[in-house]
């Protein structure tokens, strides 16, 4: 028998990705929450999926809600950090478009390529509880940045003032597409391109893509398949 740390017996060798038992618990919970539902998943089931005792799970998380809160927060935090950095750049016609394109591409890539489709948990009734307010606040801030970038683009182009909110909704629609098995390797980039087409920037799209990729290479870490997407 191996151990997950002092006083934390493990029933078997680790079988899940993660540098720590805490990471493995999050991975198991993500699989169970998205596969059979939050309400139908017990902490015992999560512990069994990791190969630890239920009591050991409580060394890392005091409640199932705490696990869900960390998982939900993780779906937003990386994209929010990237969006905050991108918001600091100047806004001529190409760079304003590139900033919105980059945020859509980066955020969409996180939702499409994460190990589990945790976005399906966004609309759980439980997600409105007080414990999840940090997640809700972060998601609201991310949506606000989308709106700001959309308005900024509208000031230097013929784009609609509501383009940023439309972009946010399009990105989150990837969650349902993924749930339906309709996600492809270029879904995030197609979504970002679609936002630019809605802005009336189809002719400028090659330049926007190039500038967007530059922003992502400087400020983000996206999957190789996205970083090397076609520019044509």
UniProtKB/TrEMBL annotation:
One example GO MF annotation: DNA-binding transcription factor activity
Protein name: Transcriptional regulator, TetR family
DNA-binding region: 42-61
Gene3D superfamilies from the UniProt entry: Tetracycline Repressor, domain 2
InterPro entries (alphabetical): Homeodomain-like_sf (IPR009057), HTH-type_TetR-like_transc_reg (IPR050109), HTH_TetR (IPR001647)
Domain HTH tetR-type: 19-79
Keyword list, A-Z: DNA-binding, Transcription, Transcription regulation
Source organism superkingdom: Bacteria
One Pfam match: TetR_N
Gene source species: Paenarthrobacter aurescens (strain TC1)
């Amino acid at each position: 028998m191996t151990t997950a740390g002092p006083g934390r017996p493990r029933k078997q060798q680790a079988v899940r990705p993660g540098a720590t038992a805490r990471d493995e618990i999050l991975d198991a919970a993500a699989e169970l929450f998205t596969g059979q539902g939050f309400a139908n998943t017990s902490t015992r089931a999560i512990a069994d999926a990791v190969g630890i005792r239920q009591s050991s799970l409580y060394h890392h998380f005091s409640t199932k809600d705490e696990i869900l809160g960390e998982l939900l927060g993780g779906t937003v935090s990386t994209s929010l950090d990237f969006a905050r950095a991108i918001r600091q750049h100047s806004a001529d016609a190409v760079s304003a478009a590139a900033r919105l394109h980059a945020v859509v591409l980066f955020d969409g890539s996180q939702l499409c390529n994460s190990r589990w489709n945790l976005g399906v948990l966004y609309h759980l009734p439980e997600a409105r509880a007080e414990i999840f307010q940090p997640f809700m606040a972060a998601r609201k801030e991310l949506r606000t940045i989308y709106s700001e970038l959309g308005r900024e683009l509208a000031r230097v182009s013929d784009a609609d003032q509501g383009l940023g909110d439309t972009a946010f909704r399009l990105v989150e629609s990837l969650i349902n597409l993924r749930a339906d098995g309709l996600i492809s390797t270029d879904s995030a980039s197609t979504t970002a391109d679609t936002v630019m087409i809605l802005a009336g920037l189809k002719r400028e799209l090659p330049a926007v893509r190039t500038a967007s990729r530059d922003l992502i290479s400087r400020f983000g870490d996206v999957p190789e398949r996205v970083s090397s997407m076609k520019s044509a």
